[in-house]
Amino acid sequence: MTSTGESGISVRLLSRYRVTIALLWTGLALAALVITPLILRTTTPIFQMFWLIVPLISLVRHRDTDRVGFRTPDREQGIRAAIAAGITYGTLLILVEPWSSVYDRLLVLALEGPDPTFAWLVRLDSVGGWVGLALFSGFVTLYSEELFFRGWLLQALNRWTQPRVAVVGQAVVFTIFQSIPVFFFDPLQAVLYLLVYAFGLGVIVGAAAQRTRSIWPGLAVVTVANLVLTAVLV
């Protein structure tokens, strides 16, 4: 009886700790999205702010990190999911990017803005710029995407529909939000961007999130992919 009671207390304490971390991380990421454009003189990331505010409201209201995918998966399961998603997405990029230059064009647009994620490379020299890009993308902008689409939205859809439909549904919404750059692409690039770099990515990391009920495998994949592609193309 005592052992069971102590175990229950430990679980509750761990749950409260996760909620605190999630609230702090999300709140600080939102603050960074407000402050960074002022410091680096960039465009204001309205969508990313929205993607943080919605899960933040859910966390404040429900105090449940599982509802936004902010949970630690089993280590082996998480690693397998990240590797599988990384290999799948990496294969698509190798097949598509060299002849289509879709990401290359997207990167040019992001640097011209500059987009706050890539402004670090424009405003800071060498190592500082890359460190800023890595930290800001992983902890703020890409985190906001994964928290909203593969966290809050995916779990919301799971409560209403089948798992596979939920994965596709969040990928469709993700693609809609990501569709603005198509106006700056030629027709073929626009189609590839929507099918591979938006919907394809959404399904791949969405499947990883569905398997683990966690945003972390997907966040690891998109952060690494973003850094590798940028390093190769800049």
UniProtKB/TrEMBL annotation:
The chain crosses the membrane at residues 21-40, 46-62, 82-100, 120-144, 165-184, 190-208, 215-233. Keywords: Hydrolase, Membrane, Metalloprotease, Plasmid, Protease, Transmembrane, Transmembrane helix. It comes from the Archaea. GO terms for molecular function: endopeptidase activity; metallopeptidase activity. Residues 130-227 form the CAAX prenyl protease 2/Lysostaphin resistance protein A-like domain. The keyword Ribosomal protein does not apply. GO terms for biological process: CAAX-box protein maturation; proteolysis. Coiled coil: none annotated. InterPro entries: Rce1/LyrA-like_dom. This is CAAX protease self-immunity. It comes from Halobellus limi.
